[in-house]
Amino acid sequence: MSITIQTFQPFLLEAWQSRYEQTVRYNLADSGVQPVTIRELLTPAQIEHLLDLPIHYPEVNGTQALRSLIAARYPGATASHVLVTVGAAEANQIICQALLQPGDQVVVMEPGYRQVWGLAHNLGCEVRSFALDPQNGWRPDLAALERAVSSNTRLIALVNPNNPTGAILTPDEMARIATIAQRSGAWLLADEVYIGSERLSIAETPSFWGMAERVIIVGSMSKAYGLSGLRLGWAVADPALVEELWRRHEYATIATSAPSMLLAEAALQPATRTTLIERQRQLIRSGAAQIEAWAARYPELVSVVPPQATALAFVRYHAPLPSIEVAELIRQQGDVLVAPGACFGIESHLRITHGLGVAYVAEALERIATVLRSIMV
Questions:
Q1: Is 226:310 a contact under the CB 8 Å cutoff?
Q2: Cα(363)–Cα(361) distance, rounded to whole angstroms?
Q3: Which value, in Å, is the radius of gyration of the alpha carbons in the chain?
Q4: Residues near 14 by Cβ (< 8 Å), separated by ≥ 6?
């Protein structure tokens, strides 16, 4: 008897990180900031409340309190528009499972976080892309988006602010994307996990919520809050779609953990949220300044378009080698982990996280420069 196994597209970025991130001295491949501790997050009274929490099944779709706090971030949304998930990763997965069938067309932004790209491939979809242009400050080619979208397009997926470039769509760009999605009848999936990580402004990036009829928002506690270890995310959508996602959530994970939801409730209280956002912005501003100064010292090795948001720099290196090979040399010779551009759909780039301790980042960057100099010879 012969068994046919469908070709599986691995998640290259996460495979790279999970294989090596615990084995290097310097990990600059992650995408968040220096994490918050429970002691920093909670008051003494809240710590006591956490210690008294029964470790039992929570509300499977997310506690009413947490869903209400999340909904408050999206005008017109209520708790019934929100499903709490195990990170944004689960949200993206169950959205694709609910919406996509083999043969559907999916259009993604590139360079980008390639989870939806890979999920769509594994579901038998046709995947097209539209580009961000590095020669134009990573602005999107919306004419390419219009050419890519057809009557068969089921889903348009993007990340804003963008991972890995840190670019933020303008209001006009957002409106045009929403119009393209509305006109085609496609769902628009906006991964907005980096809202709140703006570097050049105190204003937060507007959400796509409400800009078209078929809009789904994904968010999480990981990036702008420094709480990646909670593994807590959410999807915001029409309540009928939330019900469909909820049924798939029950298959995938049943529920997010009760302690994670309690900690997220504490983090999203308005005063605490403001404190966490400001803490994270201070880290990314100092880290981005380090990256820019480093690139200015070594113009023969690297160049970078300064990111508008995120704790990420998408650095172009000037060596004539594939990005996975360059990243592997940096890992082996420098004991530093960075993310290869190939994991985001583009070559000659490395994604480097900078929202960590200043001394830690500085030493890691010098090690990267040493390796790059050796392969430029």
A1: no
A2: 6
A3: 21
A4: 115
Question: 252 φ, ψ to 5°?
Answer: -75, -50
Within-domain flag for 349: yes
Residues in contact with 144: Cβ distance below 8 Å, sequence separation at least 6, in sequence order:
130, 131
Nearest to 164 by CA among 368, 310, 338: 310
User: Rounded to whole angstroms, how far apart are CA atoms 354 and 65?
Assistant: 33
Torsion sign across C-alpha atoms 137, 280, 204, 66: positive
What CATH number corresponds to the domain at position 262?
Answer: 3.40.640.10
pLDDT (tens digit per residue) in 220-250 = 999 999 999 999 999 999 999 999 999 999 9
- Strands 349-353 and 339-340 turn out to be antiparallel
Give the tens place of pLDDT for each residue, 23-68. Answer: 999 999 999 899 999 999 999 999 999 999 999 999 999 999 999 9
Q: How far is CA 310 from the centre of its chain?
A: 9
Q: Residue type at 87?
A: G
Q: Same domain, yes or no, for 73 and 221?
A: yes
CATH number at residue 368: 3.90.1150.10
Sign of the Cα torsion 156, 308, 352, 281 reads negative
145 and 266 in a common domain: yes
